[in-house]
Each structure stands twice: as C-alpha cells, then as structure tokens.
Amino acid sequence: MYPISLQPKLLRVLQEKEIERVGGNKSLPVNVRVITVTHRNLEEIVQNGTFREDLYYRINVIPLHTKL
To answer: Does residue 41 belong to any structural domain of this protein?
Structure first.
C-alpha cells in the first residue's frame, strides 16, 4: 500500500499525465496504463482515512473480483 504521503504524487501523474524527474525543472509527458491489485478492502481503508478517496475512484475503473 502506498504511504499517504505518496498518494497525491501518484494521483497527479494519473490526472496530469506528466512527471518531473528528480532534480529536473520541466515536466515530461507520459502515457501509462496502471494495473492495481490488493487483498484488502479499499472501501474500508478509504473510510478510515489511510487511502485517498480521489485516488481510489481514479484507479477503481474496472473492478475484477476472484475467489481463491
């Protein structure tokens, strides 16, 4: 799980579609696809405040549930 301090940075990359290199001074465009997986209930984690709601809705586009 991403620490709460890194979540805004990941969200910015997903929304703005650009990154800035460490030590860099200009933004570079990126075109990425992100696949995420977890064994935790993200809705509960969002409610208790350890996962950002806006990031959750950004990555929860096509949920896929499997049983082991």
So the answer is: yes
- Whether residue 13 contacts residue 30, with contact meaning beta carbons closer than 8 Å, is answered with yes
Does residue 66 form part of some domain?
A: no
pTM score above 0.85: no
Instruction: Determine the pLDDT at residue 68.
Output: 72
Expressed as residue numbers, the domain containing 26 is: 7-59
For residues 39 and 4, what is the distance between their CA atoms, to the nearest angstrom?
18
* Number of domains making up the chain: 1
